[in-house]
Amino acid sequence: MRVVVLCGGESSERDVSLASGRSVTRALLDRGHEVVLVDPAAAVPVLAGPLQPGDAVDEYAVGKEPPSLLDRDQSRQRMHAALTDGPVLELLRSADLVFLALHGGWGEDGHVQALLEMTGVRFTGADSAACAAAWHKGRAQAVLGAAGLPVAERVLWQPGTGEVPQAVQRLMTAGPVVAKPVADGSSVSVHCVESLSQLEQIAAEVRPSDAELLVEPFLPGREFTVAVVGDQVLPVVEIELTTPVWDYAAKYQPGAVSEVCPARIPSDLTAQLQESARHAHLALGFGTDAYSRTDFRCDTAGNPFCLEVNALPGLTATSLLPLAATGAGWTYPDLIQRIVDLSAP
Fold first, then answer.
1. Would 116 be classed as within a structural domain?
2. Which of the ends of the chain has fewer CB neighbours closer than 10 A, N or C?
């Protein structure tokens, strides 16, 4: 097929997305597809292509820190222009499929999906409604809790609107909390907070683009993630941390953490996590034509709580979905082809 891979974008996960895009491109070429690699936020959006099977694709290294968002407004203007008019839109319309390797921001919150839906372009992954439902962590956890899934107590807070809310202070008195942007990914700006003064300092440094913080109790137990691809739940992955929280640097630097798949856990816990991931996938509107990855963390008693559902999880060489696919006996090109096949007409 003729496939356009969209990557890059305007979010704090831009570097991760550029790495995912190149990995996906290599896999598609391996499977015999023709590929054009496009970054809709770039001044020159076509990064490579048309590429034919056998063509080489360079690696892209993800840095230790997320990229600056100082030019985000300009990047979004470029994205909107590229996806709604001109040569990039013609590329998308002429392709058999658009593979979304975008993470975060407009690529994962439903914006790009909505634009593609309006133009009738076929693309991989969940639709705009499911992406929007999963992207806002506070609303997503409300939906998951209403669906019967275990979620931690949470408070949404807009820093700069006054003193620390009483509900946040109450959480702090019970022990450490985790504070993170309510709409962001790749563990960007995730903090384990042990004092009110530390929380106030973090709040003072919140970027204008992060309208809200989500504050929830710190769960000190084991951390797991479970992917769903179509109607298949993949093996459980355990993230063995050396730090309190799994931040951006640990997530994308090889060797920073140990990731075990299949997780070395009792069969009943495996079944519980896999069923919870399937339940979360469906509760947020993901169908059998989509894929997702649900993250869990356990309390001191070993009870798992659902943290979030990722609509477009990373597809880099060190990402968790490819690791789970390996645990299921799939190669990386197998995984990418299965995602392609989910979107077949």
1. yes
2. C
Six-digit token pair at 211? 């309208």
pLDDT (mean) for 298-311 = 95
CA atoms within 13 A on the CB side of 169: 5
Per-residue pLDDT at 246 exceeds 60: no
Domain count within the chain: 3
- Tell me: do 140 and 289 sit in the same domain: yes
What percentage of the chain reaches a pLDDT higher than 90?
70
Q: Do the Cβ atoms of 213 and 203 come closer than 8 Å?
A: yes
Q: Which of 49-63, 152-166, 206-220 has the lowest mean pLDDT?
A: 206-220
Please give the C-alpha separations between residue 304 and each of 46, 112, 246, 338, in angstroms, as whole numbers: 43, 32, 16, 29
Q: What are phi and psi of 46, to 5 degrees?
A: -80, 110
One domain for residues 227 and 327:
yes
**Do the Cβ atoms of 281 and 125 come closer than 8 Å?**
no
**Owning domain of residue 178:** 155-217
